[in-house]
Design a protein that fits this description.
mainly beta, 2 domains, 7-stranded antiparallel beta sheet, 6-stranded antiparallel beta sheet, about 45% strand, Pirin_C_dom, Pirin family protein
């Protein structure tokens, strides 16, 4: 009757199960920004700019040279789901789409047959620190949808269901909880078909309380990532923070929270069950398909890069917004 299948440490990135490919958690306590939306240049000295993944002074530049983030890079064959709880992300892509999102917003991007995009983290505050907290999740596409048209969708935090109980707060990004449904995901997503039981939740549960994750009628892959808190107990098993748990979803999971408030990410879904051939930013079903993807990218650049800079950021005074490939502009 114990729902625990496996306990594992949270590394960088976090381990995932089919239909998920990748999950990473970023928490960076960036300093005050300059008028150019980056750290003071003096603070960049001694960093491996262009490949700065070692936490120094509480933050990283990643592949950014002057502004932290990930300049233009390609994807094919899967979807990215980016949850920005603190700070902001500036998106630009080869479709001409762009956006600035944060404060609980979620971007759902289907790479499909191929897209380039950049994800930069502008330091908008000049008078205080610019803390960034985000998850990026890669959700696979089945073979029949690998070459679907790329799609860019924003799930604004005002529209995402937030379910509050006496002890817990559930941010419902995908799936259902107590008969409440999430905002529909991107079309052609594995998550768009309800029978695939894809769930993406963030959970915050108060210290010294209890919470139950309901069971499913049939077994699906379910992973619970315990990334902040002290300890929890599941059916007599004490689990410390910075650990993940693979769970048998046919059993409900009863969580007893320890002496500190606890934060979790839950990923769940019916596995796609197809061969996965992955190299860097491309995910296909065979090595031959991977080689063809690289050849096509070299020839076409997936439509090229329409922006002036590969590390494109938007005007500093710009608020949250989404510019879609068809020219529609939504400002929040």
């Amino acid at each position: 009757m114990n729902p625990i299948l496996r306990i594992f440490p949270l590394g960088f990135p976090w381990e995932t199960q089919d239909p998920f490919l990748f999950c990473v958690y970023h928490l960076d306590h960036y300093p005050k920004g300059t008028s150019e939306m980056g750290p003071d240049p003096e603070l960049l000295k001694g960093r491996a700019l262009g490949n700065d993944f070692i936490t120094k002074d509480g933050w990283r530049m990643y592949h950014g040279q002057t502004i932290p983030g990930f300049p233009a890079h390609p994807h094919r064959g899967f979807e990215t789901i980016t949850i920005v709880n603190k700070g902001f992300c500036d998106h630009s892509d080869s479709l001409g789409a762009a956006g600035r999102f944060g404060q609980g917003d979620v971007q759902w991007m289907t790479a499909g047959r191929g897209v380039q995009h950049s994800e930069m983290f502008p330091l908008l505050n000049e008078n205080k620190e610019n803390t960034l907290e985000l998850f990026q999740i890669w959700l696979n596409l089945p073979q029949k949808d690998k070459f679907t048209e790329p799609h860019f969708k924003m799930l604004w935090h005002e529209d995402i269901p937030i379910i509050k109980t006496k002890n817990a707060r559930i941010q419902l990004i995908a799936g259902t909880y107590n008969n409440q449904k999430a905002v529909p995901p991107a079309p052609n997503s594995w998550a768009a078909e309800e029978e695939n039981l894809v769930s993406i939740w963030t959970l915050k549960i108060k210290a010294n309380t209890e919470f139950e994750i309901p069971s499913t009628e049939s077994l699906v892959n379910r992973s619970l990532y315990f990334y902040e808190g002290s300890e929890i107990n599941i059916d007599g098993n004490t689990i410390n923070a910075q650990n993940g748990v693979d769970l048998d979803s046919t059993f409900s999971t009863h969580l007893k929270i320890g002496s500190k408030n606890a934060s979790f990410l839950l990923l769940q879904g019916v596995p796609i069950g197809e061969p996965v051939a992955q190299q860097g930013p491309f995910v296909m079903n065979s090595q031959d398909e991977l080689q063809k993807a690289f050849e096509e990218y070299r020839m076409t650049q997936f439509g090229g890069w329409p922006w002036r800079y590969h590390d494109n950021v938007h005007e500093k005074e710009k608020g949250r917004f989404a510019l879609y490939p068809n020219g529609n502009l939504v400002e929040k």
